[in-house]
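Objective 1b of the project was to move from sequence-level analysis to a structural picture of ligand recognition. The entry below was assembled by the postdoctoral researcher (A.K.) and checked by the PI before modelling. It contains the amino acid sequence of the target and the SMILES of the bound compound, NAP.
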Amino acid sequence: MSARRHVNVLFSAPKATYEEFHPAICAALQAAGVPARVAGDLAPEEVDYIVFTPNDLISDFSVFPRARAALSIWAGVDKVLHNPTLTMPLARMVDPGQREGMVEFVTAHVLRHHIGMDRHILSSSGWDQVAPKLARHRKVTMLGLGELGGACAQALSALNFYVHGWSRRPRALEGITCHAGPDGLEAALAGAEIIICLLPTTPETENVLNAHTLSLPAAGAVVINPGRGALIDDAALIAALDSGALGHATLDTFRVEPLPEDHPFRAHPKVTVSPHVASLVRVDTSAAVIAENIRRGEAGEAFLHLVNRQAGY
Ligand SMILES: NC(=O)c1ccc[n+]([C@@H]2O[C@H](COP(=O)([O-])OP(=O)(O)OC[C@H]3O[C@@H](n4cnc5c(N)ncnc54)[C@H](OP(=O)(O)O)[C@@H]3O)[C@@H](O)[C@H]2O)c1
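Corresponding predicted holo structure:
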């Protein structure tokens, strides 16, 4: 009986990521029953699958004639989506561990503003007994109801927040008042006190929070953006914070990363900056997703989490 053919997996990632993920990907492929060679320096014509970080380490995908799929270990693939040489199926990362982390990040930051933690815990003097309203009386709007936004919206709903959500196509999520499409945006934002952005960047979503849309939420509303920096018009956001239309912005993603030291967000008293850490991909759970997709490819089954290039995410 001939030995089963091993698949050649090119793993293209920065050195630290490579060293962190390589053992987990090998172990996950073994657990999935896929004999594989995973390396960073395979001959291009031998590559069966490309596992990669979409940060320009590979610029020309046409040199991999037999590669069956490009499997990103990042959730966001906006940097590679428009590469004309990437014609093979492209899957993004949908990692259950990352989803769990995002739910924790979003819930924590929503509760910070809901409870008024800064006012009650950080002040060094005074005795300002302002009770927060109950969550059920606080409208929270989730822009994006996908893998991450949907899970966060449902976690907030489980805490009794009055949750509205907005997506491209109509959605039905238990406990969430769902809006869809360009016509649904104003109703989603109107009167909201906390707005969370978990959208991808596409031509339709860039600057979705702008001078007009930032005038729709309740006065003093809070914006939390762990999605992408380009979703927000930076100048409009600062103007809304300065005028009091918005009370605070918690920003994890930016148009330029790392956020330049002299960017106005850094010193603004109403802005909290975090360094794109809302939720990182978790090694073990994401390696299992990669291995499952390669197993599927070998079994002739449909790949999971394929990117819809027309929709742009
Ligand atoms: N900061 C971090 O650490 C971090 C970590 C991971 C991911 N992210 C970012 O989080 C974002 C969301 O990730 P995800 O996995 O939840 O993505 P996803 O599953 O693809 O969901 C995207 C959501 O956005 C909606 N959407 C897309 N275009 C729209 C439009 N034109 N109008 C209205 N809604 C639109 C989609 O609508 P449909 O439901 O109709 O498709 C969907 O609900 C991405 O930008 C990703 O890069 C950040």
